[in-house]
What does this fold into?
Amino acid sequence: MEFIDPALLTYCETHSSEEDYLLKKIARETQAKVMMPRMISGHLQGKMLELFTKMKNPKTILEIGTYTGYSGICMARGLDKDGKLITLDINDELEVMVRGFFEESGINDKIDYRLGNAMEIIPTLPGPFDMVFIDADKINYINYYELIIDKMNPGGIILADNVLWSGKILADESRQIDKNTQAILDFNALIQNDPRVENALLPIRDGVMMARKI
Ligand code: SAH
Ligand code: CA
It folds into this structure.
């Protein structure tokens, strides 16, 4: 489901700072060589992540779901001078490619890329985090949230991607709701009812939930 008229989306993209050489290259190589290239954040969402991060200037960002590194590089660009991005992914087939992109980014020293199951790695991370981007397996969104919420600094920002799930969150009750859709519905309801955060669901691309730890 397209949420926005394609002509309007093009207008938005042509009125957002251009992707630089590296981000264009990551997008191109993801398209050409990687499974499910639709998962990449891409131009508009990437720039939004970059600008949010530049406003926040975090010392520590946790990204759950590196994929080909696009969103991670966008966010790492907004880190504080001594800041760090820890980015996690379970798919080691992309490791060589992604490490290459991180090296090319000029800020590889700020990026701690770890391979493994995020459900196992996150409990070993002490935090605190100023920003977390949840973008891995949808079934674990609530688990990721519960693992990180007590490690967020007050004022810390949690972003969770794909919370409109191609519009399937609106599926009417007569239809079968698949388990990923149900996981997203449960996640959105949890955030909406959680007094520990204030939140806004942004209808950008596939939907981004922004929650600020109070
Ligand atoms: N953030 C990226 C896209 C992430 S796609 C961007 O915006 O460009 C989702 C990623 O989550 C995939 O690369 C997948 O391998 C990873 N993933 C899925 N389950 C995971 C798990 N349990 N632990 C860590 N990573 C996982
Ligand atoms: Ca995503």
